[in-house]
Amino acid sequence: MATNETPLLDELEKGPWPSFVTEIKRAAAGNEMAKDVLLQLEKSYRDKVGYWKHGGIVGVMGYGGGVIGRYSALPEEFPNVSHFHTLRVNQPSAWFYTADALRSICDIWEEHGSGLTNMHGSTGDIILLGTRTEQLEPVFEKLTAHGFDLGGSGSDVRTPSCCNGMARCEFACYDTMAACYDFTQEYQDELHRPAFPYKWKFKFSGCANDCVAAIARSDLSIIGTWRDDIKIDTAEIKAYADGGMDIESDVCGNCPAHCIDWDGKQLAIDNSLCLHCMHCINVMPKALAPGDDKGAVILIGAKAPIIEGALLSSVFMPFIKMEAPYREIKDVVEEIWDVWCEEGKARERIGEFIQRVGLGDFLEAIGVEPIPEMVAVPRENPYIFYEEFFEEDDEEGEDE
Amino acid sequence: MAIFEYGDVSIEVDEDGFMLEPDQWNEEVAAALATTEAVEELTEEHWKVMNYLRDYYLEFGVAPMIRKLCKETGFPLKKIYELFPSGPAKGACKLAGLAKPTGCV
Ligand code: SF4
Ligand code: SF4
Predict the structure, then answer these.
(1) 3.40.50.300, 1.10.1520.10, 1.10.10.370, 1.10.150.530: CATH of B2-95
(2) pTM reported for the whole predicted model
(3) ipTM score of complex
(4) Atom 8 (ligand 2): residue with closest C-alpha?
(5) A86-117 confidence digits (pLDDT tens)
(6) β-strand A202-205 against A220-226: which pairing, if any?
(7) Deepest of A162, A174, A325, A380, by most Cβ within 10 A of its Cβ?
């Protein structure tokens, strides 16, 4: 590419940081699509107008999701990006690849698309940026021949994702990769053939450090935890203290439950108050560890701030053992889908749906008993209607 | 905008092949569009889906939610994909002459 064609974009190459402009220029050396992307973007910067048209409907046979259609609004000026569709490809659990697998994806994409990739999108997928409609089936065929499949898009189960859990991390309270793979296989139909009011995300984190941001980004967050006592290695505690750690302020002082005591010799944790936040374990990983009775807490209803505001997910099942085939979780999920698909409005995430109908009615509809752990904000509302109280009165023949 | 031609049919379509003037739709147009979506022959079952989509669209101005489509036609989603391999939104709605759906189906 001539060096003077993109003066505004060139500004973004300055400084010590990686630059997408530099990367796209490298791709543009051998790919006309990548070149036109840059030229169109330069024009957008100059005119302060986006030149991608909104929304196309393209796909591969048998699937309703996985491809996001995109067209240039200036096809005459930038013919090589007149079509610029994105493919989402289901990443392997926790993003473990062999170098060969990565090469095969890049080779396919250089042959059939712009060669540009985004590793990875915020949902977790491999994102292949920019191809033409007539290339979709050939790409899909080659990807599947190499053992890959498309991910979710639109109003379906989005590609589930997980932290690298037991593969690399001693904090993992369950096998996130196994669970993620299992759910992905179980819900292939829901993943490829959108039929929901809106998207549904599963994310699996092995502990409360929540490396895949399940609590902020997934409709169902499955986060590892334990229900017995934190394990303490007294000798290692002493080693941390001898090494100069200020246990009082750095460990006890930052415990959100204020349930750790340190007298200069002994560390004592009141486990009945512990919130399982991982803080103390993160600070003293050699001395403290999650207990032995491990499992996961299931939370529901998070979403990023599009359409309505952002939501964090809140506790739905306080503790569950994570053992295949995870039937207990799946039964509830399927129950929730039935109710949400029947009563949910278009583009309403489950968190918004629960807010709209109220947690009480939602639980009744899916046949789950309310429990105190589900209260997201305790003592928020003093005007509580105790149904049981009135029912008891009924028996005594008093008023409704 | 592109012109789609097949046999005697000649209609204006957008990039995705959806009709720009849904008023010009007729059964012949549907049969012509079917050739672009891997539908070999329009059977009674195809028409059941398309008629439902058209009636709903003419009444409400939008495509129905997929679940509603399945319920009202009695076809599970799998069956809809068998009839229209490119799916209800891209396949069935296009053949039924609906404007391009923006969400739902
Ligand atoms: S979420 Fe927890 S278990 Fe998973 S990688 Fe992060 S720290 Fe380790
Ligand atoms: S896990 Fe968190 S709440 Fe529990 S003891 Fe450690 S710092 Fe306190």
Answers:
(1) 1.10.10.370
(2) 0.92
(3) 0.90
(4) A255
(5) 999 999 999 999 999 999 999 999 999 999 99
(6) parallel
(7) A162
